[in-house]
Design a protein that fits this description.
Layout lengths: L11 H19 L1 H24 L7 H7 L3 E7 L2 H12 L4 E7 L10 E7 L6 E8 L6 H12 L6 H13 L4 H15 L5 E3 L1 H9 L3 H7 L8 E4 L4 H11 L5 H18 L2 H7 L5 H6 L7 H15 L29 E6 L3 E7 L5 E7 L3 E6 L5 H20 L3 H4 L1 H10 L8 H6 L5 E5 L1 H6 L8 H6 L3 E5 L7 H12 L16 H8 L6 H19 L8 H19 L1
Parallel strand pairs: 1-4, 5-8
Antiparallel strand pairs: 1-6, 2-3, 3-4, 7-10, 8-9, 11-12
The chain binds 2-oxoadipic acid and nickel (II) ion.
Length: 569
């Protein structure tokens, strides 16, 4: 008898790891500075780990664990047409990377770009993401828009086989192992690969000259080449100082002072909440078992000197590699405000490009777009938290606008003025949770469970104080439009794009949802749901559900239900 056994499907999370490892290798071969910056990050992370193992006796991270913990990446790609965008969404779906959040980069004032975007990631505990932009040409002058559309209409980034595999994944809900390998290879060797080959030099020049640089980067190339691939760091201030030193922007003395400052700051900031946030493999029990010990100033100075020695060796003399220097300031919240994410980058490299003209001739030229970002992720904010962030950021930007040269003239004064705008934020997780500025995941402690039935309050902060409940933060897994705009702008060397039509088009999440044929997840709903579900479980374990106010219980249940929807889809 014929058996109709269902094929064994490859695990999508494992596929994701293989895809990103492949992309990272590819990018390392294409961009030597990227590979070196990974090494700089590793050296800095090792120093942080060394510090943490003194601060928290018992804490230890093997080289293997360090590589694994540092394996997280986000990529950025820029797509030309809705049809291409749909294929890309289908490609990512095979890796359990689903669209999260809508970013409208067309309405960010002076920093606008003709781009709308979403980010593909796993719904829960994501390790990898892709920020995926779509070029919107309907704000362009009609003449230049027609030329862009014509050029893009003839582009075939996906091979026939890649399309077959995407469709097969959609039909069967997955791919078999050998097909998964094939699709990864399509991504690494074709779809996201930089080729240095371009088309239509005249259009390229016209786009750059008329302020549509981003469009030139998208339309004139023959693949969805990765613009950047961003690793995570345990301490962004240490990493950026290290890069500025390796790139020759700071001397050894200046670097050691900065490094010592960053490490000294960590001695107070890297508490147990920091450990839980940055090292996902650690359990509460692991962390409880670590001790607390002081670190002397002498030890800090020694570490900074050792770092300067390591980073100063010839293999990290990055000033010898082609580079355009490091960005002047870090995007996102200042040092000490552990919300959302902080990002920085070395500036885009100028790379050789060959244009192939319709008459068969070629033009050798250069293109500046690919750069090297770094990021450190913190806690997801509530609505109030995000409002406070946006307000603080606007104040910080206004101050920066009044004195744009300050970051270069007097970096410390710049940092201080920037931080001042965020002074309302508590600097620790407990404070952020008490003020309901960040989301937390709560759980009952064994003391709490023992006391169940005799607990008189449902106030979560009092329960924490009494030792009946503990918390961890919910990590922010998405992007920030203003940071992204700052990164786009400083790397394109172009701030903003003016619209070339009388009425500016309006875009919504629905625009992209229609293009992809699938909904975009609202991550704020999910962060909230994670907190709500944890509260329901906690109250349940403490025997407090019946004591909760009816509307509070209702709201928690409604919010937690949103999480179920996410897991199921
Ligand atoms: C994407 C910019 C957004 C980020 O980290 O905010 C981004 C791009 O440059 O294509 O990657
Ligand atoms: Ni990025």
């Amino acid at each position: 008898m014929l058996s109709t056994q269902a094929p064994v499907l490859a695990n999508k999370t494992k596929m994701q790891h293989r895809l990103f490892a492949g992309l990272s290798q590819m990018f390392g071969r294409e961009v030597p500075l990227y590979d070196k910056s990974l090494l700089v990050n590793k050296v800095c992370n090792q120093a942080v780990v060394e510090l943490l193992s003194i601060l928290h006796p018992g804490f230890h991270l093997s080289d293997d664990q360090l590589d694994k913990t540092s394996g997280e990446r986000h990529g950025a790609i820029r797509i030309g047409t809705p049809d291409e965008y749909r294929w890309v969404a289908g490609f990512f779906s095979a890796f359990d990377l689903e669209p999260h959040n809508f970013y409208d980069m067309t309405s960010l004032g002076a920093k606008s770009q003709p781009i709308i975007a979403t980010a593909f990631r796993s719904p829960l505990n994501p390790e990898h993401r892709v920020f995926c932009s779509l070029l919107m040409v309907d704000g362009f002058r009609p003449e230049i828009r027609a030329r862009v559309e014509k050029l893009l209409a003839g582009r075939q980034v996906f091979s026939q086989r890649a399309k077959e595999l995407v469709l097969k994944n959609e039909e069967n809900g997955g791919l078999e192992e050998s097909e998964a390998e094939e699709l990864i290879a399509e991504g690494v060797n074709r779809i996201f690969k930089w080729t240095g080959q371009a088309r239509d030099y005249q259009l390229y020049k016209d786009l750059c000259d008329s302020g549509y640089k981003i469009a030139a980067d998208i339309a004139c190339f023959d693949s969805h080449h990765l613009n950047h691939l961003t690793p995570n760091t345990f301490c962004i201030d240490l990493y950026t100082s290290a890069m500025k030193y390796c790139l020759g922007e700071w001397d050894s003395k200046a670097f050691q002072a900065r490094a010592a400052k960053a490490l000294r700051w960590l001695t107070s900031a890297a508490d147990k909440d920091y450990l839980k946030l940055h090292f996902r493999h650690l359990t509460f029990e692991d962390i409880d078992n670590f001790g607390d010990a002081p670190v002397s100033d002498q030890e800090i100075e020694k570490m900074a000197a050792a770092l300067a020695e390591r980073l100063g060796r010839p293999d990290l003399e990055l000033s010898k590699l082609a580079n355009a220097g490091f960005k002047d300031f870090t995007e996102g919240p200042p040092t000490g405000v552990p919300v959302l994410l902080r990002q920085d980058s070395y500036k885009a490299l100028t790379e050789k490009v060959t244009f192939h003209e319709p008459d068969g001739s070629t033009v050798d030229s250069v293109h500046t777009a690919r750069f090297g970002e770094i990021e450190q992720r913190f806690y997801a904010t509530t609505k109030q938290g995000r409002k406070l962030y946006d307000r603080s950021l606007a104040d910080a930007e206004a101050a920066r606008g009044k004195n744009p040269g300050l970051a270069k003239q007097d970096y410390d004064a710049y940092l201080e003025s920037y931080a001042q705008a965020f002074a309302e934020f508590p600097q620790d997780l407990g404070g952020l949770l008490r003020k309901e500025l960040a989301f937390g995941r709560y759980s009952a402690t064994s003391d709490g469970i023992q006391a169940a039935g005799s607990i008189g309050t449902t106030d979560i902060n009092k329960l924490v104080e009494a030792g009946f409940v503990r918390y961890e933060g919910v990590r922010y897994e998405d992007f920030l439009p203003f940071s992204a705009a700052g990164i786009f702008a400083s790397n394109l060397g172009q701030y903003g794009t003016e619209t070339g039509v009388a009425e500016k088009p309006v875009y919504t999440a629905g625009t992209l949802e229609q293009i992809m044929g699938k909904p975009i997840v609202d991550p704020d709903v999910v962060y909230h749901a994670i907190q709500s579900e944890s509260l329901l479980e906690t109250y349940g374990e403490l025997g407090l559900l019946a004591k909760l106010d009816g509307t509070v219980l209702d709201e928690l249940e409604k919010s937690a239900a949103n999480l179920k929807g996410v897991i199921l889809t």
